[in-house]
Design brief:
alpha/beta; Collagenase (Catalytic Domain); six-stranded mixed beta sheet; 34% helix; 20% strand; globular; Hydrogenase maturation protease
Length: 177
Amino acid sequence: MTDSARAIVLGLIADPGLPTELAQRLMRELPSELGCHGEGRWEVRICEEPIALDQQGALPMLAIGRGACQQASTDAVVLITDLPRRAGVVPVVADAGTADRVGLVSIPALGALDQYRRCRDTIVQLVTRHLYPAEDRASVVEQAPVGSAGLAHPDRPRPAHTRARPGVRERRRRARG
């Protein structure tokens, strides 16, 4: 990719408070971290916005992410929230709608210690493996308008919704039985 190629834009939508503080720290480090996982130049934009549940008590992750992608002209969006997420009794660290390139990181599921590193690593894995994998980054056309990077293989079906891997604690708990 040449220097004239446009950057891939990642939007971080963060709840006020700790999620916003983490997002502001991440904004400085994420472009280089994401750049280490393949070709491409990354730009990170932050939006502080309360992430609220809908009337049914569900988190409208995809609707919030789609709106943010259109408003801020981003290629992918990650929501950072302090709302706990669970699948039954198991805490969910990250969630993704791959077709919409929208992800979510739940701070409480990261644990109390070293939240910054865990949040950074989770976002890097979420973006590089699920939201914007290498084959999609290769399809970014030089000087394409921001927010219009398409899929490299439009005829290849992609799952509409996937979950990221469980955290270290959950894998240990499952291993113990």
